[in-house]
Write a structure and sequence with these properties.
Blueprint: H1 2-35, H2 38-65, H3 74-107, H4 112-115, H5 118-136, H6 138-141, H7 156-159, H8 162-205, H9 216-247, H10 254-266, H11 268-276, H12 281-298, E1 306-311, E2 337-342
Antiparallel strand pairs: 1-2
Helix pairs in contact: 1-2, 1-11, 2-3, 2-11, 3-5, 3-8, 8-9, 9-10, 9-11
């Protein structure tokens, strides 16, 4: 019964992760053609990594349904684990890369476009995926990290030694978490200082309506707190309990690590597109317009063969006068005017 429950949860999570991240990739790809923003490229990469996590959730669901026969071979189990860990590592590193990008944009605004050019972005993303692939496939690259007494139950602590958990924890999770906190605290301080300077300038020279919003910097800090809290809540319990299990041989928490806590970590791939995309006002506005336009395009029209334009109560402006200065043109409403034309004349007009 628990396996069936986790199979349903993994299937549902896979659908949600795939839907949200594909939508983010499509919308941001269209937005990228207009704005050429480098931060959109990083968010698209984050959505792609999270999409791969969602696809691997399908394999997790199959593992929950066919437990016993699905992972009888150690090599196949390790391959599945490595393919699951790799996009998770890439997602964590992309979060860190987005934070570095925003830090440079705030600290070095004049030199940002020179530093973060397209060549630099390609090199960073290429190095990120190489590192994620290497860290994710370490148990396959170094057989010494594989367990000798594999019993057919596929899980990180069943197939790999504790040293691999130390590598994931102390080379990926903790450095990423500490860097996220430090970078965003620095960005928050700079934003607060800028806000104070702008406010003092407005007090000396501007009218009351020229004051900047008092909570502008708090909105950025709020978003940062949501990012860090969700990242910590999602992956923190897995690594904390994993370290306890690794340092306490008598403790038996492998089942807790295998399904509930790893599932909690995978939910971060669903939270990322919601936080990084929908919390951005520009992206949220573009997404809402995109959805409305698609809905209007798919909605049935009342007239299929012809396009009807209906003008009601057209008035002549009062500035138009007769040549005689004694009387002016009366503003009586003109009867309704109906213009009927071929629908092909209005193709692309949004009617």
């Amino acid at each position: 019964m628990p396996n069936l429950l986790y199979a349903v949860l993994h299937s549902l999570l896979s659908i949600l992760i795939a839907t949200t991240n594909i939508m983010v990739i499509v919308v941001l790809s269209k937005q990228l053609k207009k704005s050429q923003g480098k931060n959109f490229i990083f968010i698209i990469n984050l959505a792609a990594a999270d999409l791969l996590v969602g696809l691997m959730c399908i394999v997790e669901a199959l593992d929950d349904l066919y437990d016993g026969d699905f992972d009888s071979d150690l090599s196949f189990c390790l391959l599945r684990l490595c393919l699951t860990v790799t996009p998770c590592v890439s997602s964590m590193l992309t979060l860190l890369l987005i934070s570095v990008d925003r830090y440079l944009a705030v600290v070095r605004p004049l030199y940002y476009w020179k530093i973060m050019n397209m060549k630099c972005v390609i090199v960073l993303l290429g190095g990120l995926w190489v590192m994620a692939f290497f860290v994710g496939h370490i148990p396959l690259i170094y057989p010494s990290l594989q367990r000798d007494n594999y019993n057919g139950s596929c899980g990180l602590f069943y197939a790999a030694k504790n040293d691999y958990l130390y590598i994931l924890c102390f080379s990926i999770f903790l450095p990423s978490l500490v860097s996220l906190i430090c970078l965003h605290v620095a960005v928050g301080k700079i934003a607060y200082i800028h806000h104070q300077r702008i406010q003092s300038t407005c007090v000396r020279s501007g009218p009351p309506f020229a004051y900047p919003p008092a909570n502008s910097h708090f909105k950025a800090i709020r978003t940062v707190l949501i990012i860090i809290v969700c990242f910590t809540i999602s992956w923190g319990p897995y690594y904390v309990v994993g370290l306890v299990q690794a340092t306490c041989p008598s403790c038996d928490m492998t089942e807790l690590l295998r399904d509930p806590l790893f599932f909690l970590g995978e939910t971060n791939s669903l939270l990322n597109p919601l936080i990084y995309s929908f919390y951005c006002r520009d992206i949220r506005s573009y997404l809402s317009k995109f959805i409305i336009c698609k809905w209007r395009e798919g909605s049935p029209r009342g007239v299929s063969d012809i396009a009807v334009v209906h003008f009601t109560n057209i008035r002549f402006p009062s500035c138009l006068k007769r040549q005689s200065k004694e009387t002016e043109l009366s503003q009586e409403p003109v009867p309704n005017i109906i213009v009927i034309s071929s629908s092909s004349d209005f193709s692309g007009a949004g009617l």
